[in-house]
Amino acid sequence: MSQLMLCSLGNSSNAGNDTNNNANTNSSMEDDDSYPLPTIYRCRAPIASLDCMEEFNSGGGGGGGDGLGNCGAVAGTKEQLLTNCIAAQAHRLQHPSPGIRYRNLGKSGLRVSNVGLGTWTTFGGVGGSGNEETAEAVIALAYDSGVNVFDLSEAHSGHRAETQLGRILSRRAWNRTTYVVTTKIYWNSKTEGRGLSRKHIIESVQASLLRLQLSYIDIVMIHKVDPMCPMEEIVRAMNYVISKGWVMYWGTSRWSPVEIMEAYTNCRQFNCVTPIVEQAEYHLFYREKPELYMPELYNKIGVGLMAWSTVTIGMVSSRTEDCGMSFLSRSSYKNKYSSFSWTEDETQSLYKEQEYGWKDKLVDEEARKYSDKFREVSALADRMGCSFGQLAIAWSLKNESVQCLLLGAANIDQLYESLQGLQLIPKLNASMMSEIERILDNKPSRPPMVSTLALR
């Protein structure tokens, strides 16, 4: 182990035995015993959620460009142009909105902001206007604030969202290295492109590239498992699109821990690229999977967590009296792995509920069950001087397992309000978190171990 440390950190006692160049290089280490340890990451991949990794973003913030990732016209060699592009990106990452941090997604090298923009409502989902000018303003505000993740899905707003985002990115002409685009391959037995066959996956990726007008997609996620398709075919197809350069990484959405482990096992068996992220629901009233199972998956196989919720995706009203029913009626607590389903059938039911006032009896019972807790949390948010949504965002990001939380916004005011919630994170100290735990009284715990001998 000591030899491993020596390979990256050096040793002041042995520096004099090396060449003069090595001695000069390690001189600063000999003078200062508190030489920073993060350089050990030369020998191993960084842990995803360490905020100390922010020091790797240090660098010049001047040079050509506007500080937002746009490289200005620079006369000179290609090396000079590249240097100015890197400097502009570093300047943008050094001056994000308060509370924005950058973390590795899973145990990969991909750096993402701790909040991303879920574009379902932005491009005309429930509560969205569908206006492209408004959507462009929201995306520009997110980018200028330091958000570098834009999440899409063919299930949310059809193919229109990818087409509109492609036009916006083309007009803005941002440096491609400064943002991350994620999209999903959606499995639904009622659509024309059924299943998750190799044919469907490859065709979906190629179609998304055309709509987005991009040369590659950063992350493609498989939305729900196809029980009729072998897992080997799915992982081999994802490995193929990555090897072709169309996709950089792949992940899953609304998969159970067992399904994720099965995919990982198949990837190792057939020498395929493993998934790096699971996109799952996480909020004050749904905690079991993100808090019990996702940290275990991260530590064992390196799968990170990109979280979304009915609050942060922009599904709630700005008024407190409407927010409780709107938020709680969007969730179903019957399935511990998928309490809210992003499917075409269920999104249609949301429109029916809004338009015709239709409600299910079970939904009303659930709303009554959680309404008291919601009112108490809302009262606590009022005492803190924030909204319920802002408190929910800050509370979710207190969980170190959440490497990226997707926010939703139909306009720039909603996005700005959500981003302000990041400043509440330092205020959620131990006593405040204990108060929230007392109100919720829903901290998940693993069932006790049962001996197989006792069952006989």
How is this structure best described in words?
It is a single chain. The protein is α/β, with parallel strands linked by helices. It folds into 2 domains: 1-44, no CATH class; 112-440, TIM Barrel. Helices cover 43% and strands 11% of the residues. An 8-stranded parallel beta barrel has the order 3-4-5-6-7-8-9-10, surrounded by 4 helices. Strands 1-2 form a two-stranded antiparallel ribbon. The radius of gyration is 24 Å and the shape is globular.
Features:
456 residues; alpha/beta; TIM Barrel; 2 domains; eight-stranded parallel β-barrel; two-stranded antiparallel ribbon; 17 helices; 11% strand; globular; disordered N terminus
Topology:
Blueprint: H1 2-9, H2 20-25, H3 27-31, H4 78-94, E1 102-104, E2 111-113, E3 115-118, H5 132-144, E4 149-151, H6 160-172, E5 180-186, H7 198-212, E6 217-223, H8 231-243, E7 247-253, H9 257-269, E8 277-281, H10 288-301, E9 304-308, H11 320-328, H12 344-356, H13 361-384, H14 388-397, E10 402-407, H15 412-420, H16 430-440, H17 452-455
Parallel strand pairs: 3-4, 3-10, 4-5, 5-6, 6-7, 7-8, 8-9, 9-10
Antiparallel strand pairs: 1-2
Helix pairs in contact: 5-6, 6-7, 7-8, 8-9, 9-10, 11-13
